[in-house]
Design a protein that fits this description.
Layout (H helix, E strand, L loop, with lengths): L2 E6 L7 H16 L3 E6 L5 H12 L5 H25 L4 E4 L6 E3 L8 E4 L2 H8 L3 E5 L2 E3 L5 E3 L5 H11 L4 E6 L20 E3 H9 L7 H10 L3 E5 L7 E4 L12 E5 L2 E10 L4 H11 L5 E5 L6 E9 L3 H15 L2 E5 L2 E7 L9 H11 L6 E5 L2 E7 L3 H11 L8
Helix pairs in contact: 1-3, 2-3, 5-7, 6-7, 8-9, 10-11
The structure holds adenosine-5'-diphosphate, aspartic acid and magnesium ion.
Aspartic acid binds next to helix 5.
């Protein structure tokens, strides 16, 4: 007997037929004598639809009310999944995030999990029940409903796997595993048998939405080994863990594209100590993630500052920057038609020439590079959004990623 935590994403529970399919899979694993805690997402599209409705009734919806609203998507699917299990004779019980003892901090819309009280779950597991937990949500110390950021059901699953000391954690989605690039965009992308936390984390934070980046961070911290696989077949998936064999030999493991990015240009800001601090403190206080920061050489006491923010946080950034710019001067403009393309691989640590290969391939394809940033294990460039998919295919070919993987 094993204790297994599974997570089924939005497409996997996208309609009642699919929910029944998930219930049948759960029953088979349950009947083999395993204990099961199952996390489900909202039906595909529901969270987006709820966000659109919020914006239709109010230009700047309150973040508290947003979380109240978004939490209902997962509440529908937990109840339906439990009912589908009852329908085929499996004892199951649904839990909201709060009922599952998932306590978070107070940051609405992207709360962090502080602690999990697994006692209620343990009790029901002992009683032989399958537990169905709403992904993406928790409760803070004031008793308020919070959500864990987009894609947050992955985090719920990984945190629960750590909390109940699961033997296995399986993330079921609509592709067979983690590929060298988004298989919907790059047709010859290859499925990886395994990938390290470091590489998975970079890919996820750079836009490969197959895993939420914070969930990978959590897995690495608590050493939760997990498998990403498909809920539509029985193919083996991708194992994500600390170390993988042949890690340093492969230079580039994957290509990621993030289209949820906006470029911010602050021109004519005062070129003096403290200007950048004022700008980025204002953004940090609003919990906005800033990336790709470039400041040009100042002239006549003025400088230009360029950086990127998530597109979904652009309006929040505008509001946060207003008082800061009153203090240090400067005008702000945005470019929303950009995307970030990245290549990732721990092998880069010990090899040179990766940047040159990428830039050359993009140049040949006529893709202009607007900003560049590098770290030990990744190179990212900002390019025009309408060229992003082509650029991903070009980068994938340049590093011969179609020959990698299983
Ligand atoms: P779920 O609803 O199951 O959480 P998501 O839509 O969040 O699923 O993530 C799965 C999607 O991630 C896939 O359909 C695929 O298009 C996309 N994706 C992006 N990059 C990758 C990658 N490197 N490997 C696999 N899938 C990827
Ligand atoms: N329903 C949430 C979202 O769409 C959480 C998730 O699917 O993981 O972001
Ligand atoms: Mg997801």
């Amino acid at each position: 007997m094993a204790r297994i935590v599974q997570k089924y994403g939005g497409t996997s529970v996208g309609d009642v037929e699919r929910i029944k399919n998930v219930a049948a899979r759960i029953k088979a694993i349950r009947d083999a004598g395993n204990e099961l805690v199952v996390v489900v997402s909202a039906r595909a599209g529901v969270t987006n639809e709820l966000i659109a409705r919020a914006k239709a009734v109010c230009a700047i919806p309150s973040e508290r009310e947003m979380d109240q609203l978004l939490a209902i998507g997962e509440q529908e699917t937990i109840a339906l999944t439990a009912m589908a299990l009852h329908g085929i004779g499996v004892d199951a019980v649904s839990y909201t995030g709060a009922q599952a003892g998932i306590f978070t901090d107070k940051v609405f819309t992207k709360a962090k999990i502080r602690t999990i009280n697994a006692k209620p779950i343990e009790k029901d597991l002992k009683a032989g029940r399958v537990i169905i937990v709403a992904g993406f949500q928790g409760i803070n110390d004031d008793g308020q409903v919070t959500t864990l950021g987009r894609g947050g059901s992955d985090l719920t699953a990984i945190a629960l796997a750590a909390a109940v000391k699961a033997d296995k954690c399986e993330i079921y989605t609509d592709v067979d595993g983690v590929y060298t690039a988004d298989p919907r965009v790059v047709k010859d992308a290859r499925k990886l048998e395994e990938i390290s936390y470091d590489e998975m984390l970079e890919l996820a934070s750079l836009g490969s939405k197959v895993m939420q980046s914070r969930s990978v961070e959590f897995a690495a911290k608590y050493n939760v080994v997990f498998e990403v696989r498909s809920s539509f077949n029985q193919n083996p998936g991708t194992i994500v863990k600390q170390e993988v064999a042949y890690m340093e030999k492969v230079l580039v493991r994957g290509v990621a594209v993030d289209k949820d990015q906006a470029k911010v240009l602050i021109s004519n800001i005062a070129d003096k100590p403290g200007s950048a601090a004022t700008v980025f403190k204002a953004l940090a206080n609003a919990h906005i993630n800033v990336d790709m920061i470039v400041q040009n050489v100042g002239r006549a006491g003025l400088a230009n500052l360029t950086f990127t923010v998530p597109l979904s946080e652009k309006d929040k950034a505008v509001r946060a920057l207003e008082p800061a710019l009153k203090e240090v001067g400067g005008e702000v403009t945005f470019d929303e038609k950009i995307a970030k393309l990245s290549v990732v691989g721990v092998g880069m640590r010990t090899h040179s020439g990766i940047a040159a290969t990428l830039f050359e391939a993009l140049a040949k394809a006529g893709v202009n590079i607007e900003l560049i940033s590098t770290s030990e294990i990744k190179i990212s460039v900002i390019i025009a959004r309408d060229k992003a998919d082509d650029a991903a295919r070009v980068a994938h070919a340049a590093f011969q990623l179609d020959q990698l993987g299983s």
